[in-house]
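To whoever is on call:

I kicked off a structure prediction for a single chain this morning and the downstream step that reads the tokens threw a length-mismatch warning. I double-checked the sequence; it's 296 residues and nothing unusual in it as far as I can see. Pasting both halves so you can look.
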Amino acid sequence: MADNVVNMFDPKTDKFPYPVETDKHYLKVHMDRGYVFDTKYPYIDRSKWFRFRQGVVRFLLNIFVFHVATVRMGLRIEGRENIKKHRDVLKNGAVSVANHVHMWDYIAVMKAIRPFRSNLLAWAPNINGENGTLIRMVGGIPIPEGNTAATKTYLKVMRNLLIKDHGWLHIYSEGSMWEYYRPIRPFKRGASHIACDCDKPILPLAFSYREPGWIRKHVFRQIATFTLRIGEPLFPDKDLSPKEREKDLTIRTHDAVCTLAGIDPKENIYSPLFGEDSKRVDYYTSTYGVGYKGSH
């Protein structure tokens, strides 16, 4: 199956304890700040104090953090001409989707889509965790779990963001971060559900890897460097029923992310849609994360 990954470097690392289910997390959250994500929670905080702090963070991102992330990740961004080409469409609201493969990859996404500013759907425990304030400052929105009323409230906020505010929403459709993982895991339908419900396009992005040079590999122990490619917007097919429209857009988005990552969608080792059979495929080893002590 290793031959299914074409044209790009595959790190094939066994450093990280990738779970059996493809959407599960392996990073441990060491704090619970006690926030309750219910119907009263401000999923998008519009208070003056919050917006002031968020403005300071965005200033620091532009003058410092983006540069540090570029060096740290060995980041290259390709396809920014698609942002300019489709600016008139994207400025009316958009959803972006990418594979989730590094703790700093959302910083790369924010840099890539400038001048647009994005919000990010985030795993609720991360918002409650030790990095929660920072995630909120860069646009993080918790996904409520186990509360139907809260989910309706949160979806209403997403509709307002995309339709009324013409905002931008970034979603990691694989459901979790697997660092330096090469194949594109199955996608959940949340991004397509929101895009179809709001009649907005999905902009696919994909991270792929390059083999690091001698200094990065042997001095800094870097597993790989990163390339982020930006694709063309994908639109919901209004000729399909709502259910089929959502499924179709999910599949097309997954195919686009595969292609941008240098993987033939027909040869990717995972099916495009997440389901009960979405289990890790052990295509190069079956032992992961021995001695793992966390990511940095």
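Update from on-call: the warning came from a stale cache, not from the record. Cleared it. Sanity check on the structure: Confidence is low (pLDDT under 50) at residues 1-6.
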